[in-house]
Amino acid sequence: MRKTKVSFHKRGDGTLPEIITIIPLKDDVVFPHLILPLDLTGEGLVKAINDATIKNEFIGVVALKYGVDSPKPNDFYEVGTAVKVVQVLEATSDNVKVLIEGVMRIKVMDYVQTEPYYKARVEEIREFTEKSETIDVLVQSVITLFKLSAMLGKTLPKDLISMIDTVNNPSILADLAAIYLELPVNEKQKLLEMIDPQKRLRVVFHYLNKEVQLKEVRGKIDEEVAKEMSKTQREYFLREQLRAIQKELGQEDSHMEELNKLEDKIKEAKMPREVEDVAMKELERLRDINPASAEYPVSRTYLDYLINIPWNKKTIDNLEINQAERILNEDHYGLEKVKARILEFLAVHKLKEKLKGPILCFCGPPGTGKTSLGKSIARSLGRKFIRISLGGIRDEAEIRGHRRTYVGALPGRIMQEICRAGSSNPVFMLDEIDKIGADFRGDPASALLEVLDPEQNVSFVDHYLDVSFDLSHVLFITTANILDTVHTALRDRMEVIYLPGYSEDEKLKIAHQFLIPKQIKENGLENHPVIFQDQSIYKIIREYTREAGLRNLEREIGSICRKIAKEIVAGKQVTKEIAPEIVEKFLGPRKYFYQVADEEDRVGVVTGLAWTETGGDIIFVEASRMKGEKELTLTGQLGDVMQESAIAALSYVRSNAKRLAIDENFYDTSEIHIHVPSGAIPKDGPSAGITMCMALISLLTGRHARREVALTGEVTLTGNVLPIGGVKEKVLAAIRAGVKTIVLPLKNKDDYEEIDKEIRDKIRCVYIQKIDDAIDTVLIQRQ
């Protein structure tokens, strides 16, 4: 309890009930007749204060014999103080600051309640004071010593010295002086238990007298120290001369003492034998170097790194699978494959004592929780968490370190972060592994091969340290948006786990469980909770975001919370429930529209599905025919693969024109133009062949293509449909765009069946093996 103000207050004490609430104090004692602040923590204590304040009841404040967190009746002293709450200064759910006034001494007879707070049967301890010359002398003596103590430097409230002259009650004076005595709790408790004011004044007088004597002695010492300052300066110069003499005589100086301490640290670091030999050789070399030489700090820094590396320091893994599963479920919704893999790792670790850390790679669109998963894994394992971003790294030395021959050489980021963590088995996240660069300074991706290979990283050698370090205990986790740009050999060393994105229903649940509570807390709305209706969240998902992840959804929710915070501060009527119409009021007009659902069926325009590094998306393939002669025009920033798909589609249509009821000579007098809208965005990939083929068949047969049917798949010249990747991302994109039916290659059936049933129930899927299988599904029969 920190005392910030003490004053006197006379008022009627009231009648003490037989049973009152008891508040425990760990580190102080409260005396009667005084007003002072009290800071209490704990839901039970907060409830006790609130109940007593509402009913204007007495509270008993009793000191604890032992500083325990969960005291029992035996841990309390028998004598305490009955107080009244004067004012509640500050209150939260588990903390309250109040101003209390001590009223009378009480004795606790027995405890009648322990939960949610203590109640006890008490009796008032009455004090009897008789006027006498002895008491008058004691009162004046205590006042004099109190003032003298203040003059000698004792820290006291400003108004206390002038107020103490007005105190003529020996009991109040003794209690007041006791508060400011530097005594342990048990000694102050003895003063509280002294009922006779005269006896209490004698003890207080004794303590004050002792305190004043100590302060006088300390003051004399300070004066002597001030006089000796000039002597100290003279001794400094003498020591410098002595140091020079010792150097001439070859005797040990402070520099040698420092090197000896360094040797002790090397031995305490518990390095492997070969590393300790290197460190001792470097130390012997350091002994021969002049401290003023430029080589000295280089060698010294190298030894400091060797000492600070956690060679044998490890955190103990939490191998309780149920607890780890609970933590993972608390932090993330869904992601069952990732959670299962971590629990498998724990299970094997529990059965096998020495286990090499796996190299996991979380691959998926932005905002799907890849980085935050690493933090959850570290928390569930009870390990330290390290994260570095590899995006834009082009220098190999960032991974392996610089040779010590270079000026300003340092260890690589791997060893630096392990030193910083102070543990040899952290969870190490390498973010954005697909965005590593390469130039004349080397190839960082190739440098990572040794780090991420379980067979090689047992003896990883940093160029700066030039000694091997065992990285096999580190749990490495990498993240990427796409794997196409990742070094092939590096990809082979990692166990890839895909995070495809979230459906609308999953986003709804995540918003309620994680995003909304987080934004309410970050925007200061804990005392003004906001309720988001399900339809409002769906509206934000469909009309204000278009993503596989959750970042924009969280931003829009945060935007709404900030606008509500503005209403509160401005004193306007506060919005407490977010309905769909409120969303549009706060976020403005909708940003995205369902292009498929909003358009009509047309000839030569077919809906396709594409996969991008930000998730799935829909594309439209448009085909038109003009007068010309055997010419194919392709526009829309198409890559080489999509251009070849268009040529293959045209070749298939020409070779099967008769069977498809198309004029076999159509190409002789025609120019065919295939365009994919959003021409400024580069597009490529091996899954648009079937879409282009259907657009050509629709154009040349005059049959309208159904806009609510979306296709994905690659074609061959013989009409076979080849399997594709990114099935879940494409299905989610189709559902977001309002597509009713998707057409998938038959070989992707297993991929589609792995998708959650609640997602599959929202869309119809048609499997095809040949191009002809899709014609009647996509194209409408001519009337």
From TrEMBL:
Induction: By heat shock. GO terms for molecular function: peptidase activity. Keywords: ATP-binding, Cytoplasm, Hydrolase, Nucleotide-binding, Protease, Serine protease, Stress response. SUPFAM superfamilies: P-loop containing nucleoside triphosphate hydrolases, PUA domain-like, Ribosomal protein S5 domain 2-like. The active site is at S687, K730. The keyword Nucleotide-binding applies. Its EC number is 3.4.21.53. It catalyses: Hydrolysis of proteins in presence of ATP. The keyword Manganese does not apply. ATP binds at G364, P365, P366, G367, T368, G369, K370, T371. PROSITE patterns: LON_N, LON_PROTEOLYTIC, LON_SER. GO terms for biological process: proteolysis. InterPro entries: AAA+_ATPase, ATPase_AAA_core, Lon_bac, Lon_bac/euk-typ, Lon_lid, Lon_proteolytic, Lon_Prtase, Lon_prtase_N. Pfam families: AAA, Lon_C, Lon_lid, LON_substr_bdg. Residues 600-781 form the Lon proteolytic domain. It is found in: Cytoplasm. Residues 20-212 form the Lon N-terminal domain. Homohexamer. Organized in a ring with a central cavity. ATP-dependent serine protease that mediates the selective degradation of mutant and abnormal proteins as well as certain short-lived regulatory proteins. Required for cellular homeostasis and for survival from DNA damage and developmental changes induced by stress. Degrades polypeptides processively to yield small peptide fragments that are 5 to 10 amino acids long. Binds to DNA in a double-stranded, site-specific manner. HAMAP family: lon_bact. Belongs to the peptidase S16 family. This is Lon protease.
